[in-house]
Specification:
Blueprint (H helix, E strand, L loop, with lengths): L6 E7 L3 E8 L5 E8 L9 E2 L1 H13 L4 H4 L2 E6 L5 E3 L9 E2 L7 H11 L1 H7 L9 H11 L1 H6 L2 E3 L1 H10 L3 E3 H4 L5 E2 L4 E2 L1 H6 L9 E3 L4 E4 L11 E3 L2 E2 H9 L7 E4 L3 E4 L14 E4 L5 E7 L3 H11 L13 E3 L16 E3 L7 H24 L12 E4 L6 H11 L3 E2 L6 H15 L3 H8 L6 E2 L6 H10 L5
Parallel strand pairs: 1-5, 5-14, 5-15, 9-12, 16-22, 22-23
Antiparallel strand pairs: 1-2, 2-3, 4-7, 6-8, 10-11, 13-14, 16-17, 17-19, 18-19, 20-21, 23-24
Helix pairs in contact: 3-5, 10-14, 11-12, 12-13
Bound molecules: adenosine-5'-diphosphate (ADP) and 5-O-phosphono-D-xylulose (5SP).
Length: about 475
């Protein structure tokens, strides 16, 4: 039972920033919020110093006024897959290799080649691509063997922060399932794969079950010492908790990454590699497809065109694949952007609309495969739940409606990842099911935008440029 006056903190440590919400446990009211930016390297790789995340967390906590010092529990949702290597005092040996760093593509290809995609899908639950932590570990072994050999702890981004808060070396099944070395078929680390990777299992965090606590906040960590600390989870799994997501309801998240997912009763095992078979934080499954080029790619195109991101024009004949960072879905890590179909009468606004269309096309093509995990695509009148920073934009909303032909629900509650972490923290206090907390807080309530007629002409133009199974 929720007690009057109890407060939880939910943290979202994602690619571009850390966001923290202070939430009233009884009502779900957001009492205060804080946000601080991260720096991500540019060029061939994508790296961030984990100390940047810790400083951003402290900065964001400092913006909560009295609430950090009054919190009863805290949990961290974090960007998935990133490789954090630490020395024996918990200090980063080098900057973290992030999920959107495609330098590890050759290592991912070699891993898949060695066992075959079907083996990975069946045993691990996902066919590893460049984003997976295992491919990053192999990249590190190949390019910086001294850093790999010096590692005394290997963590994911959210584990790193949970450990700084609580001193506990723990993770959860949701984020562990994005490593490539946690097998969804057994619910445990795959010691055979770890052996092949030369990675001592003793360097990895313990995997906590749903509802288990990591421990309590230690002195000087920026949150009331003694407050309970949740296991945390990956950011997409956290958002699913935050929404109280039920099987068959599709979510589309527009952030640095684009993701489409649902929760499923059946364990996903897609040998095509399009659908990652992640575990959900509450014990179920989280089939998910992820793109590398979403809001940042579209914002870059707007900048190149000298336009505001909302200045789009309808119509025209372009097909634009905005794969500026290489791409993960479809698996084209060496790709770059492609623009075709330009005419004398093409407007800059149509080119910008083309970038939105290309980004959303790649996501929607994967949606049917995501929904098929539980045995069939959901009814097309089932609304897509639209979240992430991009969901605030009209051009994004209209593009998803036009290319999906489905209604779209935009929850009023922004920051679903941080809210999901707050739900996980609340479980520690009240013992409720996460879905009951999300329902009590009304997290998925928001306007329902009606379906628009599906724009088959644009979809056909894109499919002609790049056919995608869907
Ligand atoms: N009002 C808005 N309209 C459209 N897009 C927005 C708006 N505000 C923020 N964004 C987009 O949201 C993105 C950040 O989304 P977010 O989900 O916070 O990212 P991440 O979780 O990956 O750090 C930015 O890249 C920006 O393009
Ligand atoms: O790699 C994935 C999912 O597999 C990404 O979704 C990351 O988890 C990063 O998320 P954002 O920073 O874009 O929220």
């Amino acid at each position: 039972m929720a007690r009057e006056g109890q407060i939880v903190l939910g943290v979202d440590s994602s690619t571009q920033s850390t966001k923290v919400l202070a939430v009233d446990v009884a009502s779900g009211e957001v009492l205060a919020r804080g946000q601080a930016p991260h720096t991500v390297s540019t060029g061939a790789g994508r790296e961030t110093d984990p100390e940047v995340w810790w400083r951003a967390l402290q900065d964001a906590l400092g913006q909560l006024g009295e609430y950090a010092a009054r919190a009863d529990a805290v949990a961290v949702g974090g960007q998935q897959h990133g490789l954090v290597v630490l020395d024996d005092r918990g200090r980063p040996l080098r900057d973290a290799l992030l999920w959107n760093d495609v330098r590890s593509a050759p290592q991912a290809e070699a891993l898949v080649e060695r066992r075959g995609a079907a083996w990975w899908a069946e045993r691990i639950g996902s066919v590893p691509g460049a984003s997976f932590t295992l491919a990053k570990w192999e990249w590190l072994r190949a390019h910086e063997p001294e850093a790999a050999a010096a590692a005394r702890a290997v963590r994911l981004p959210h584990d790193f922060l949970t450990e700084r808060l609580s001193g506990a070396a723990v993770t959860d099944r949701g984020d562990a399932s994005g490593t490539g070395w946690w097998a969804s078929s057994t619910g445990a680390y795959d010691e055979e794969l770890l052996g092949e990777a030369g990675l001592d299992p003793a360097l990895l965090p313990a995997v906590l079950g749903p509802g288990e606590a990591a421990g309590t906040v230690r002195d000087g960590a920026g949150v009331r010492a003694g407050a309970l600390v949740g296991a945390g989870t990956g950011d997409n799994a956290a958002a699913a908790l935050g929404l109280g997501l039920t099987p068959g309801r599709p979510v589309l998240s527009l952030g640095t990454s684009g993701t489409v997912y649902t929760v499923a009763r059946q364990r996903p095992a897609d040998p095509s590699g399009t659908v990652a078979g992640f575990a959900a934080a509450d014990g179920g499954w989280l089939p998910l497809a992820c793109t590398l080029n979403c809001t940042l790619a579209v914002d870059k195109v707007a900048e190149l065109l000298g336009r505001d991101r909302e200045q789009v024009d309808p119509g025209g004949s372009v097909a634009f694949l905005p794969f500026l960072d290489g791409e993960r879905t479809p698996n084209l890590p060496y790709a770059s952007g492609l623009l075709t179909g330009l005419r004398h009468d093409t407007t800059a606004g149509q080119v910008l609309q083309g970038a939105y269309d290309g980004a959303v096309y790649a996501l929607l093509a994967a949606l049917d495969l995501v929904l098929a995990v539980d045995g069939g695509a959901a009814a097309t009148d089932e609304p897509i739940v639209l979240i992430g920073g991009g969901a605030k934009g009209s051009a994004w909303r209209d593009t998803v409606r036009r290319l999906s032909g489905r209604p779209v629900r935009v929850p009023v509650a922004s920051e679903l990842v941080a809210l999901g972490a707050a739900v996980q923290a609340t479980v520690l206090l009240t013992g409720e099911e996460p879905s009951a907390i999300a329902a009590r807080w009304g997290t998925s309530e928001g306007p329902l935008l009606p379906a628009l007629p599906r724009d088959d002409a644009t979809l056909a133009r894109l499919a002609e440029t790049l056919p995608l199974a869907g």
